[in-house]
Amino acid sequence: MDAVARTPRRILLVGGGGREHALAVRLAGEPGVAAVVALPGSDAIAGVRGVSVVPGDPLDASVVVAAARAARVDLAVIGPEAPLAAGVADALVAAGIPTFGPTAAAARIESSKAFCHAIADAAGVRMARAGAFAAPGPALAFAAELSAGGRGIVIKADAWPRARASRSVTRSTRRRWPLARSSSARVPRRPMLPGSSSRSASAGRRPA
Hints:
Helix content: 40-55%
Shape: elongated
CATH topology of the largest domain: Rossmann fold
Number of helices: 10
Number of strands: 9
Distance between the termini: 53 Å
Structural class: alpha/beta
Radius of gyration: 20 Å
Strand order of the largest sheet: 3-2-1-4-5
Largest sheet: 5 strands, parallel
Number of domains: 2
Strand content: 15-25%
């Protein structure tokens, strides 16, 4: 069987950002691909020839599975990190839909910086010094220690950005150090390593 015959004819693309726009262009242009359906897509993605968009929450696995079935897709491609962390790939595979994207367990190394650091520590991989916290006090003390070295501080919410502990730690630290860089990932609360919190933030500096 040649490569064109093996190419999925109908593809569901999950996401709506710039990365997914690039994927839409590439996938729609592949020989043998008849249609690409993007959920939720964007105006730019809708303008790609051979691509249509459907509304829906990309973090809701049941919505994504229903869209994949309705479009009769041969393959689902998940672009963003958040749907992967939400278990969308797991749900698609369980529904019998071939899927390009890691399981929630595999995606956790990207969606949880605390978990990533724990894995790196266990493997002896050198990373920036970091700590995970569920309350502002210890986080502020740790950030002060890092700041004393004259290096920048990065704050990362390790659960839903609306989680009270993560939000409080981030706001308190940024009030103390306005130039601290901060970012949040929309990922669901998942069990972390024993003794750690699913609602935490981390701050670190690159090793010298």
